[in-house]
Write a structure and sequence with these properties.
Layout (H helix, E strand, L loop, with lengths): L1 H10 L20 H17 L24 E7 L8 E3 L13 H17 L4 E7 L4 H12 L8 E6 L3
Parallel strand pairs: 1-3, 3-4
Antiparallel strand pairs: 1-2
Helix pairs in contact: 3-4
Length: 164
Amino acid sequence: MAHHQSIEAVGAVEEPVAVHRKRKDDAEMDITPMIDIVFLLLIFFLVAATPDQNTAVELPPARYGGGVSVQTSVVFTLANRGNDEPAAVYPADGVVGDPLPDDPEEQKRAITSAVEEGFNEGKIAVLVKAERSVKHKDVSRVANAVGAAEVQDVHLHIAVFEKD
């Protein structure tokens, strides 16, 4: 019988012993709201801060290019007319008076004579001011007319300005 008991003991399936452990509480915290508040404070201080005028930065002068005096230059202003019309050319600093004629040959004669007169009066440069929306071909047409003037050492300066 002893032999029989050992077979019976081998064939018996015992239930595993269940070990109950205490669950740990989640120690993690959601920090998303804290990050939002930090960014809001940062933005607030950046916007609300007044810069100190004593610490203003002095920028160095430009290496290439310099100022051009309107008093010592013959000035032409090009204004955009819209559509596909050529730009209006004014023989002045700004859109003042009547523009030069639209006919390319008449316009060229008027520009060359204005440049020659200006150089005879002691002007030393030509300044072509164009609105930002003026096409390059219009600026080039005026620059070619300036180059056709019979004066020595023409210094041509081109400027772009924003329309008021």
